[in-house]
């Protein structure tokens, strides 16, 4: 991957509008697309790819303008993730997770905490990773007076070795009880090279190969109490807005699924136009004139456009909640989660269908490893197993039939 053609990014003014930021993301995607299949096969740690995100300014998209950030909103961030994911699903995921963890201080922390984090992140172009796999509950946070120590292990830590800072999460020792079965969770941001933080090179899945999502060991990583997000005098300041992290990250998922699907359709379309052969018994000289080929592209594109439109609409609805955090009610949050669940369900189904059916209109030779068309399906299939889509449909169905709102959990 060569970034030489875009070294002038750092000497050009930052984009000033949402559309200009999406255009910048398209420039980044064009660089990533040049060797996406080869990089997927190599599976190397994506240091250069993350540097590309930094050089282009995309990592600072949500940061405050006065500190060098883009000052943009979440609907723009989702569109940027989708654009990058067209070229490389792994890098789209890394960027989307980065945006969430960058914003996490605002979701969970006090104003003083998140203003400090966002200023430092924008000035230094931090890239965020997160050791916050909710199904691993073995990270213990011990109160040691003025400091806290995190100790345990997480199965997944997306962004691990390419991150500058990592969000840690664990349960405060002694906080679990009959009235508090889940205990008090503590989030803190630490440098990724902190003593006691060991990232393991054990991510070996069929898709999203460049996301650095391997396991991590956390051995007595020390932070001051002042870094415990949302805690004041060792007491967590609860707001409904704290629970908006799940619908926000689930929308990140949906958008990079749709981005990968769009990339699959674009790549397949180029192959059909330039390499695919018409069927010898079909009576057409070109593959692009085959009625079944035309119909398939029309069908898949219509489904993708519909899913993208829904995803964009729900992103705007979510931004209304982010814009006034203190006003978010439980009903606001619950209804938004139902809408997000619907987006996640449709994005999953449409993306899987697109990535599977493109082979029907590209032909047998398109399955060559050198073409790399399989990476789109592998990437979507891998991440859509993050949590069962049936439970997303259940949230929607229960709301429609009974008005029931989903309770905030790590997955809803």
UniProtKB/TrEMBL annotation:
Keywords: Oxidoreductase. It comes from Streptomyces ochraceiscleroticus. InterPro entries: Acyl-CoA_DH_C (IPR013107), Acyl-CoA_Oxase/DH_mid-dom_sf (IPR046373), AcylCo_DH-like_C (IPR036250), AcylCoA_DH/ox_N (IPR013786), AcylCoA_DH/ox_N_sf (IPR037069), AcylCoA_DH/oxidase_NM_dom_sf (IPR009100). Residues 28-116 form the Acyl-CoA dehydrogenase/oxidase N-terminal domain. It holds the Pfam family Acyl-CoA_dh_2. Residues 251-386 form the Acyl-CoA dehydrogenase C-terminal domain. The keyword Oxidoreductase applies. This is Acyl-CoA dehydrogenase family protein.
């Amino acid at each position: 991957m060569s970034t030489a053609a875009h070294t002038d990014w750092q000497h050009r003014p930052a984009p000033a509008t949402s559309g200009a930021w999406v255009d910048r993301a398209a420039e980044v995607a064009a660089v990533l697309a040049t060797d996406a299949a080869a990089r997927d096969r190599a599976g190397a740690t994506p240091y250069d790819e993350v540097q590309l995100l930094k050089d282009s300014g995309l990592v600072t998209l949500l940061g405050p303008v006065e500190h060098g950030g883009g000052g943009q909103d979440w609907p723009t961030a989702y569109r940027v993730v989708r654009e990058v994911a067209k070229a490389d699903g792994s890098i789209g995921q890394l960027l989307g997770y980065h945006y969430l963890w960058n914003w996490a201080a605002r979701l969970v922390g006090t104003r003083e905490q998140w203003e400090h984090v966002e200023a430092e992140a924008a000035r230094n172009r931090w890239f965020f990773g997160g050791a916050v796999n909710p199904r691993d509950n073995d990270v213990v946070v011990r109160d040691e007076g003025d400091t806290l120590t995190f100790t345990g292990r997480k199965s997944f830590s997306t962004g691990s070795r390419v991150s500058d800072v990592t969000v840690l999460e664990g349960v405060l020792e002694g906080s679990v009880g009959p009235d508090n079965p889940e205990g008090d969770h503590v989030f803190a941001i630490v440098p990724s090279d902190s003593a006691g933080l060991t990232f393991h090179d054990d991510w070996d899945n069929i898709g999203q190969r460049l996301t650095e999502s391997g396991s991590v060991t956390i051995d007595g990583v020390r932070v001051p109490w002042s870094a415990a997000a949302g805690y004041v005098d060792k007491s967590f300041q609860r707001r409904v807005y704290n629970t908006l992290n799940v619908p926000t990250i689930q929308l990140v998922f949906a958008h990079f699924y749709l981005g990968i699907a769009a990339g699959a359709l674009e790549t397949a379309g180029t192959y059909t136009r330039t390499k695919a052969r018409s069927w010898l018994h079909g009576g057409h000289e070109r593959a692009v004139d085959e009625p079944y080929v035309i119909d398939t592209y029309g069908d898949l594109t219509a489904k993708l456009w519909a899913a993208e439109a829904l995803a964009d609409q729900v992103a705007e609805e979510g931004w209304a909640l982010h814009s006034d955090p203190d006003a978010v009610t439980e009903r606001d949050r619950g209804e938004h989660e139902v809408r997000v669940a619907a987006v996640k369900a449709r994005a999953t189904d449409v993306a899987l269908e697109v990535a599977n059916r493109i082979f029907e209109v590209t032909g047998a030779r398109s399955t060559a490893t050198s073409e790399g068309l399989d990476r789109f399906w592998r990437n979507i299939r891998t991440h859509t197993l993050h949590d069962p889509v049936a439970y997303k449909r259940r949230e929607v169905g229960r709301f429609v039939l009974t008005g029931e709102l989903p309770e905030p959990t790590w997955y809803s």
